[in-house]
């Protein structure tokens, strides 16, 4: 009976580790994004645009809308899919 209890504890520990691994794999990107959004300012080494974390924020703000990107690609002569192509 003592061995059975030890085996159950080991199985429970392995299940807990597997559960944590699943959560990290499934929701890791969302956890990192939340952490950066919540605590990002605490770990930034500067007040300006001198470091990588500040450059990423500026780049995200300056992204072009999707319509402009599609127009640029269409002007270059590339094949662009229309909405009708995806209707079933």
Short account of what is shown:
This protein is mainly alpha-helical and 88 residues long.
Keywords:
88 residues; mainly alpha; 66% helix; elongated
Walk me through the structure:
The chain is mainly alpha-helical. About 65% of the residues lie in helices and about 0% in strands. It is built from three helices and no strands. It has helices at about 1-40, 50-60, 65-75. The protein is elongated and about 75 Å long. It starts with a helix and ends in a 13-residue tail after the last helix. The mean pLDDT is about 75.
Q: Describe the global form.
A: elongated
Largest sheet: none
Return Rg in Å. 24 Å
Mean pLDDT: 76
What is the topology?
Blueprint: H1 2-39, H2 52-61, H3 66-75
């Amino acid at each position: 009976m003592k061995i059975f209890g030890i085996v159950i504890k080991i199985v429970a520990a392995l299940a807990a580790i597997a559960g944590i691994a699943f959560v990290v794999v499934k929701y890791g990107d969302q956890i990192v994004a939340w952490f950066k959004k919540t605590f990002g300012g605490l770990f930034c080494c500067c007040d300006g645009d001198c470091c990588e974390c500040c450059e990423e924020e500026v780049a995200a703000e300056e992204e072009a809308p999707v319509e402009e990107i599609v127009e640029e690609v269409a002007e270059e002569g590339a094949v662009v899919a229309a909405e009708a192509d995806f209707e079933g």
